[in-house]
Design a protein that fits this description.
The complex is a heterodimer. By secondary structure, chain A is mostly beta strands. Chain A is built from no helices and 11 strands. In chain A, strands 2, 4, 5, 6, 9, 10 and 11 form a 7-stranded mixed beta sheet that branches. In chain A, strands 1-3-8-7 form a 4-stranded antiparallel beta sheet, with no helix packed on it. The N and C termini of chain A lie far apart (33 Å). By secondary structure, chain B is mainly β. Classes of the chains: A mainly beta, B mainly beta.
Chain lengths: 112, 111
């Protein structure tokens, strides 16, 4: 299906475990983004990518790792999950930096 | 330090009346502003935007106003409908194209 998808939609893990959230878009958009949504903070940018093999930090990158070997995929990895990383994570994409961003449905992550 | 602020966490409006959602920002370098709408268990969807060279942009029932001197923007929804009930985020685009979002305002439109 066309669009932007995220998997899994829900994930429960334990402190210290490694977790990878997947994001896939079919529009061949150059830019992709990862945000987390927390009450009282809105959406905060974790990492973004301008193209394959080009990534950069956002506002809250600590504890996260990203990669972008293919234009359509932008996985987000929590190398050692902490409770403070319990959140809803959104992936987004856009054609260019000045275009509107299109968001995926989100992944609700709970770290116990 | 919150560069984009939505000071009202929630707003309740009667169906058919006007909804006004407010947003303040601190960085005068922001040159583009957007409003996103979010339903529960879904990702945000783009609603309307405005460039800093304009002071108003209209799209159907939705109008965004920008007051650069006050660093303030607002979203007007007229008339409000129950289907407009959602969380609304304002966002500002700064250098590098990164979006900075406000905390969101939950709008409830009552029949």
């Amino acid at each position: 299906d066309a669009g932007i998808t995220q998997s899994p939609r829900y994930k429960i893990t334990e402190t210290g475990r490694q977790v990878t959230l997947m994001c896939h878009q079919t529009w061949s958009h150059s830019y992709m983004f990862w945000y987390r949504q927390d009450l009282g903070h809105g959406l905060r940018l974790i990492y973004y990518s301008a193209a394959a093999d080009i990534t950069d930090k956002g506002e809250v990158p600590d504890g996260y790792v990203v990669s972008r070997s293919k234009t359509e995929n932008f996985p987000l990895t929590l190398e050692s999950a902490t409770r403070s990383q319990t959140s809803v994570y959104f992936c987004a994409s856009s054609r260019a930096s000045y275009n509107e961003q299109f968001f995926g449905p989100g992944t609700r992550l709970t770290v116990l | 330090d919150q560069q984009v602020k939505q000071n009202s966490p929630s707003l309740s409006v009667q169906e058919g009346r006007i909804s006004i959602l407010n947003c303040d920002y601190t960085n005068s370098m922001f040159d583009y502003f957007l409003w996103y709408k979010k339903y529960p268990a879904e990702g945000p969807t783009f609603l309307i935007s405005i460039s800093s060279i304009k002071d108003k942009n209209e799209d159907g029932r939705f109008t965004v106003f920008l007051n650069k001197s006050a660093k303030h923007l607002s979203l007007h929804i007229v008339p409000s409908q129950p289907g407009d009930s959602a969380v609304y985020f304002c966002a500002a685009k700064g250098p590098g194209g990164k979006l900075i979002f406000g905390q969101g305002t939950e709008l409830s439109v009552k029949p």
